[in-house]
Amino acid sequence: MEFKLLLESIEKYLLVVRRMVDSGIPKRRALKAAQRTWGLSNQEVQAIYRIVWPRMEALARAGKRAPTELLQGHDLIIDGYNVLVGLAALEQGEAVICDDGVVRDLRMSPKIEEDEVDTALELLVEYLEHVQPSSVKVLFDAPVSGSGELAATVERHLSEELDVPVKAAAVKGVDEKLVNFPGVPVTSDSGVIDRVPAFHDAVREVAVLREKEVWHPPSLPETGFVKAPVPEG
Question: Residue 222: is its pLDDT beyond 80?
Answer without folding.
Answer: no
